[in-house]
Amino acid sequence: MSQPLRIFLTQLGLRDSVHPFTSPPLGLLYLAAYLRDKCPVDIRIVCQEVEKYSNDSLVRSALDFAPDIIGVGCMTPYSQALPDVIAGFRAAMPKAPIILGGPHVSAFGRRAFEMCAADAAVMGEGERSFELYVEAVRNGSGFDQIPGLLWRDAQGNIISNPGDAPIIEDLDSLPMPAYDLIDIRKYWRMQSMPPIPRQRYITLLSSRGCPFGCIWCHNIFGRRFRAHSPERMVDEIMHCVKQYNVNDVEFVDDCFNLQQSRVESFSSLLLKKHGPIKLAFPNALRTDIMNQATVDALADAGMFFTCLALESGVPRIQKMTHKNLDIDKFLAATELITKRRVFTQGFMMLGFPTETEEEMKTTIAVAANSKLHLGSFFLVTPYPNTPLYEYAKSSPLLQDDKAIFSSMDFLKSKINMSAVSDEMLSYYFRKAMRSFYFRGDRILRICRDFPQRRLLYKYLPVFVTRVLKGFLS
Ligand code: B12
Ligand code: SF4
Asked: How far is the CA of 113 from the centre of ligand 1 (A)?
């Protein structure tokens, strides 16, 4: 048997006050689990954010491992570090090929690749392409047969292979994410997506792809919905309960509840095989397809927190953005969910193309009058490879790559496509917080339903800052 290849996988990112959240690097855990099932490899995973490594320390930690291949993933806000980090890896380990993947490269494609000196890049789902790349490095067989791969030839020319990155049709055929390659306890000491103190959770992706086609949305996993079976989901949870004493599961699907029957079968199987366990949905539930049966099934199985994405309270904008959410159904489902004392956080966006002042006021009012406990308002931000980005190209800011990278943040986007001035947009962005939180009934419901009431004091400074932001506007 050949020597195992040594593979260093890292996710770039530095924690700051704008991005105070972290969760396990599920993409790298899937890649590692898949690869080690296929061939002899020795894999190390280093999450820059969790280790609090500077770019130099990250390069040193790779050098200590002496990898044969380096794989790097990141999201767009950290992508400005890519050229330096890749140059550091290259200088320290000139023989190790460097491959990029993950959300940033999936969104920016060739432009992300051109900006740094990596050897190859995968756009979209990574398992199969990464396996093919590692095989090609091992066999010295060349990269031109790997569909959709971007790579540099010996002369440094960029080659873009035809086709798309191959995807896994049967998700149950994927091994469970390689949690054994990270110290999950380090993540438990950090704040995850739900604004609730928690310990002993894992992140679970039970499906890939979403058919809804909102114009701002990423397309990492395609528009076709593929899902794990309820059996596999329950097995994954029970495995982590046994191995890591987990008591809490955080779902990061794009649309967990697309198939109601799968949701109900999962909930009843979980209850049968394990009993209720804490379930959080910081990203994953679509409200206008929820009904009493699914709400009850999830609440009985342990759902204690969910995010619910309204985005806009205006039917014209729902239609224009292809989100097509039925606002009345959103409000009805929010009520059903909060009646079960599940803590909720709404996601709203301001600054859609052509959005007027009246429409912003409507969204703020719909959210403020809803039964949501918490509300987060974001600025509409056009990411490449989305229809919204095509629209936004009319903005002069999009001519400049630097401006694009520094603008790709939902909290401080600099690309205003709405019908109001920058000042007005900024005013309503802050006013939204005041209108949402400065309500006695909401404050009472937050105090009553917060999942860890004795720790609520920890979040008081956050609430106060949010409300004050509105007053200071
Ligand atoms: C959980 C999550 C987070 C977590 C952290 C996730 C983590 N540790 O990776 C937190 C809460 C910290 C977070 C924060 C933000 N997030 Co977020 N997040 C997600 C979410 C919901 C799930 C991520 C996940 O686990 N997916 C499952 C895994 C299996 O998929 P994956 O990571 O993409 O990995 C696959 C491929 O990308 C590829 N791959 C990944 N890495 C690598 C590396 C190599 C070498 C290769 C070959 C392949 C490869 O293979 C993997 C398996 O197929 C996604 C949406 C989604 N459905 O993916 C958004 C998403 C990734 N986030 C997004 C954004 C924009 C943000 C924020 C910038 C939001 C903001 N405030 O403005 C911040 C950024 C903060 C930061 N730290 O950078 C965007 C990213 C777009 C982009 N161009 O970067 C996404 C796609 C959602 C969206 N709205 O479009 N997020
Ligand atoms: S429903 Fe969510 S995941 Fe699906 S396209 Fe819209 S924003 Fe993306």
From this structure: 18
How far, in Å, from the CA of 162 to the mean position of ligand 1? 25
What dihedral do alpha carbons 194, 197, 201, 205 form, nearest 10°?
0
Q: State which CATH number among 3.80.30.20, 3.40.50.300, 3.40.50.880, 3.40.30.10 fits the domain covering 191-468.
A: 3.80.30.20
H-run or E-run covering 367 = helix 357-369
Q: Is 423 exposed, middle or buried (0-12, 13-18, 19+ CB in 10 A)?
A: exposed
CA distance 414 to 346: 23
**DSSP helix/strand/coil, 65:** helix
- Regarding pTM above 0.85, the answer is yes
Pocket perturbation via mutation, ligand 2, pick of 224, 288, 318, 323 by most ligand atoms within 8 A of CB: 323
Cβ < 6 A, ligand 2 pocket: 210, 212-214, 217, 254-255, 286, 323
Residue with tokens 């495995």: 239
State which ligand 1 atom lies nearest to the alpha carbon of 18.
71
212 CA distance to ligand 2 centroid (A)?
A: 6
Residue intervals of the chain classified under CATH 3.40.50.2300 are 5-160
CATH number at 5-160: 3.40.50.2300
Q: Encode the chain (473 residues) as per-residue pLDDT tens digits.
A: 578 999 999 999 986 656 678 899 999 999 999 999 999 999 999 999 999 999 999 999 999 999 999 999 999 888 889 999 999 999 999 999 999 999 999 988 998 999 999 999 999 999 999 999 999 999 999 999 999 999 999 999 999 999 999 999 999 999 999 999 999 999 999 888 888 888 899 999 999 999 999 999 988 898 899 999 999 999 999 999 999 999 999 999 999 999 999 999 999 999 999 999 999 999 879 999 999 999 999 999 999 999 999 999 999 999 999 999 999 999 999 999 999 999 999 999 999 999 999 999 999 999 999 999 999 999 998 888 889 988 888 777 676 655 566 666 666 667 889 999 999 999 999 899 999 999 999 999 999 999 988 888 877 776 676 666 655 54
HSE, side-chain direction, 13 A CA sphere, residue 176: 17
Residue 12 CA to residue 82 CA, distance in Å, equals 8
**Ligand 2 pocket test target in 214, 219, 378 with most atoms within 8 Å of CB:** 214
Task: Quote the CA–CA distance of 422 and 379 in Å, as a whole number.
Answer: 11
